[in-house]
Amino acid sequence: MTNATTRQPEERELLHAAFRSFDEAAQTLQQSYTALTTRVEQMDVELAHSNEALRHQLHENEAMRVHLNGILESLSTGVLVVDEREMITRSNHAAETMLGTVEADLRNREASEVLTSLGLSVCDRPQHLGQTVVSISQVPLRKDSGIDSGHLILIQDVTRSYQLEEQLQRKDRLVAMGELIGRIAHEVRNPLGSVELFASMLQRDLAKDSPAKRYAEQISQAVQLMDRLLANLLQYTRPTRMARGWHLAEPLIRDSIKLAAHAMTKVPIEIQVDISHDIPSLWCHDGQLKQVVLNLVVNAVQAMPHGGLLTISLQQESAQTLGMPSVRLSVRDSGVGIDPDQRSRVFDPFFTTKDEGTGLGLAIVYSIVDAHQGRIDVHSTIGQGATFVIILPHPSMAPTSGDRQISEGKQRASHEDAYINSELALAEEWLHE
């Protein structure tokens, strides 16, 4: 009994100690739970801030990506993005347009293979890509760390600058050659006058049925032919800069075609004339411009030895071409075309591919167009013909009233017969040339 009574207080004490330990543990657990809950709430807040910052960063990155894509697609320079394996990973619209393909056909192809298939390479010199002249360069593409991660191939359309440089070089050649031609023509013309004089005296003194009289006549004809050639040379070196005026466009063009009719008698030629109703008149010297159209028509006919289609069109041209209101006069044939290696020389004096040509027809055309402050270009594909394009100034104050056109028509008619007779002689000469 005594032992049982003695153990009860001890057991109660142990039980109280166990409850106190449990209470302490529960309290510690509660504190840990509270601390953990607080930390979770803090982490939720931090995570929310991180998510917001991430969303903001993603939005900025997307906006930057769209902006950079817009810049890339807006560039007039073609861009090919090439990785370390020399494979194309990206291209912009300008590159696709120049190369005549789409991005899906360029991606994952070797850049050198794409360029080689088009006859191109990465080099500083201008290269022809169809009717376009391009320059192709390469720049490294570096990461933020400065390590190369591929490169960019830049394709620049330099057609206009190439044409301007070509025109400048041509002008330099023409100026130097023009001075030489002018001096030679003057020196040769003087003794020709003496030859013509003595030939005329021989024709007068010799008997009508004398064989020598026929020789004298042939000498006189040859001298006259040489004199016309020298006159053309002098016209080329110093084209007549007569005052320009407004002249009816359609009669001017159709009269030029009539003057070239003799060249179209040997082969079947179909002629199409397309003149915009918005261009009733041309600001030009009518005689010189008729000679331009005449020469180009005869040249086109000679390029179609078996016949073909001759198209002459007159349309509005963008004011940006010459920096002023302009018109575009085109003469297109369906003939043999012009060799690309010869295209830059067609306006050079004495350059010709014809056995009996003198190479002055197109040189004089160039000189007359230049005297009108205009521009002439040629586009051609072998076997598909050639197109000569003339851009002429067209002042915005062009008269459209009926009174001006009627007056102009009367003035034109009064000089028509004399002009046509002189131009027919020129036409025969150009045909032989």
Descriptive notes:
The protein has 433 residues and is an alpha+beta fold. The protein has 4 domains: 29 residues; 82 residues, PAS domain (Beta-Lactamase), CATH 3.30.450.20; 75 residues, Helix Hairpins (Orthogonal Bundle); 188 residues, Histidine kinase-like ATPase, C-terminal domain (Heat Shock Protein 90), CATH 3.30.565. It is 55% helix and 20% strand. The chain is built from 11 helices and 12 strands. Strands 2-1-5-4-3 form a 5-stranded antiparallel β-sheet. A 5-stranded mixed β-sheet has the order 7-9-10-12-11. Strand 1 and strand 2 form a beta hairpin. The N and C termini lie far apart (153 Å).
Number of domains: 4
Find the count of extended strands (DSSP E, 2+ residues). 12
Unreliable stretches: 397-433
Q: State the helix count.
A: 11
Radius of gyration: 42 Å
For CATH, the homologous superfamily of the largest domain is named as Histidine kinase-like ATPase, C-terminal domain
Beta-strand percentage range: 15-25%
Helical fraction equals: 55-70%
| Distance between the first and last residues' Cα | 153 Å
**Overall form:** rod-shaped
CATH topology of the largest domain: Heat Shock Protein 90
User: Largest sheet at a glance?
Assistant: 5 strands, antiparallel
Structure class: alpha+beta
CATH architecture type of the largest domain: 2-Layer Sandwich
**Neighbour order of strands in the largest sheet:** 2-1-5-4-3
Question: What is the string of helix and strand elements?
Answer: HEEHHHEEEHHEHEEHEHEHEEH
CATH C-level label of the largest domain: Alpha Beta
Mean pLDDT: 80
Walk me through the topology:
Elements: H1 2-74, E1 78-82, E2 88-91, H2 93-99, H3 103-106, H4 111-117, E3 123-129, E4 132-142, E5 148-157, H5 159-205, H6 211-237, E6 245-248, H7 249-259, E7 269-275, E8 281-284, H8 286-302, E9 308-317, H9 319-322, E10 326-333, H10 361-371, E11 375-381, E12 385-393, H11 402-432
Parallel strand pairs: 7-9
Antiparallel strand pairs: 1-2, 1-5, 3-4, 4-5, 6-8, 9-10, 10-12, 11-12
Helix pairs in contact: 5-6, 6-10, 7-8, 8-10, 8-11
